[in-house]
Amino acid sequence: MLSRPTRTNTEALYPSDLNILRAAFDALCQEFAISPDTGAAYAVARELIRLFQTGITEAATLMIAVRARWRDDWEMGGGNAA
Q1: Distance of CA 29 to CAs 18, 25, 38, 80, Å?
Q2: What confidence tens digit (pLDDT) does each residue in 49-60 have?
Q3: Residue 69: Cβ within 10 Å count
Q4: What secondary structure does DSSP assign to 13-44, as a single string?
Q5: What's the distance, CA 65 to chain centroid?
Q6: What is the SS3 assignment for 59?
Q7: Distance between CA atoms of 60 and 63, rounded to whole angstroms?
Q8: 4-40 as b/e: b if 16+ CB within 10 A
């Protein structure tokens, strides 16, 4: 599952990295029916970047991880993902 070593917060993201993150972000925003400029969307973006920095660099795997996180948050918070 980990295709790269863990990154630090100061390491650069390359254009190919941003393309992966953008594809996952766009798909998740559509799936969760959230606008890209909302607090919930920012939370999705933060989680995608955090996961990417841990070495999860495939869009599908990132999306699975974010879905799992948000499902847990919805169950615990009564439906609020942000």
Answers
A1: 16, 6, 10, 14
A2: 999 999 999 999
A3: 16
A4: PPHHHHHHHHHHHHHHHHHHT--TTSHHHHHH
A5: 8
A6: helix
A7: 5
A8: eeebeeeeeeeeebeebbeebbeebbeeeebeeeeeb
Question: pTM above 0.70?
Answer: yes
What pLDDT digit, counting tens, does each position of 9-26 carry? Answer: 667 889 999 999 999 999
For residues 30, 32, 18, 10, the Cα torsion angle rounded to the nearest 10 degrees is 160
- The size of the chain, in residues, is 82
Model confidence pLDDT, tens digit, residues 38-79: 999 999 999 999 999 999 999 999 999 999 988 777 555 544
Mention every residue, 6+ apart, whose C-beta is less than 8 A from residue 34: 40, 41, 44, 81
Which amino acid is residue 40, in one-letter code?
Answer: A
CA 35/CA 32 separation, integer angstroms: 9
